[in-house]
Amino acid sequence: MHIHLLLVEDNLDLATTVIEYLAFSSIVCDHASNGQAGLNLALNQHYDVILLDIMLPRLDGQQLCERLRQQGVQTPILMLTSLDALSDKLASFAAGADDYLVKPFELAELVARIRALSMRRSGQTSRLQVDDLVMELSTRKVSRAGQELHLSPICWALLEHLMRASPEPVPRERLEAKVWGDEPPDSNTLKVHLHRLRKTVDKPFDRPLIHTLAGVGIQVKPYA
């Protein structure tokens, strides 16, 4: 079973050890060394599992976990930390973590927990559909009327968020937070990416699915 995960860990020696061990178990690992970088990756990429240290610079692991849940990211999260007090564990679970592993840990146990969480993930929704627009989350493919569409990572993140919310509109501020976290772009950047998204998703077809509601936000809505 191929697994793609995100490791957010500021101890580079530990991160290297974990990544190398996971590679032998056919687990592909992206790495971020601080919470903000981890947030950006988690919001822009699809992962089967996310591993978070708690004591992270810029944004700690519990804050990062909570932020991801607020943004609708349902990827299983495993906390890796030297904090073993019950209060720390409860705080992590309250933030939205699925599992908790105290350092130092056996790498074989880590792999077993990752596989268990990944199997749990496979039971979640892997397909979003609005009208004839289909997003396959497991294979990261998007199609409309049977025609495959090619999206940039940012456009993918925007469309996924809009489709999960459909038919409700999503405020522009929430879309910006979904993609760029605490480092919002200039006022024109979201407009540019929405234009690109419309060009791919709507322009080649006879009816639009992406709509702008003035003063409210952006929505993906089935054609009536």
UniProtKB/TrEMBL annotation:
Record keywords: DNA-binding, Phosphoprotein, Transcription, Transcription regulation, Two-component regulatory system
Annotated Response regulatory domain ranges read 4-118
Q: Which residues form a coiled coil?
A: none
| Source superkingdom | Bacteria
One Gene Ontology term from the biological process aspect of the record: regulation of DNA-templated transcription
Residue ranges occupied by any OmpR/PhoB-type domain in the UniProt entry: 125-222
Q: Does the keyword Transcription regulation apply?
A: yes
Q: Which residues are recorded as modified (4-aspartylphosphate)?
A: 53
Q: Name one GO cellular component term.
A: protein-DNA complex
Give the Gene Ontology MF terms in alphabetical order: phosphorelay response regulator activity; transcription cis-regulatory region binding
**Record's protein name:** XRE family transcriptional regulator
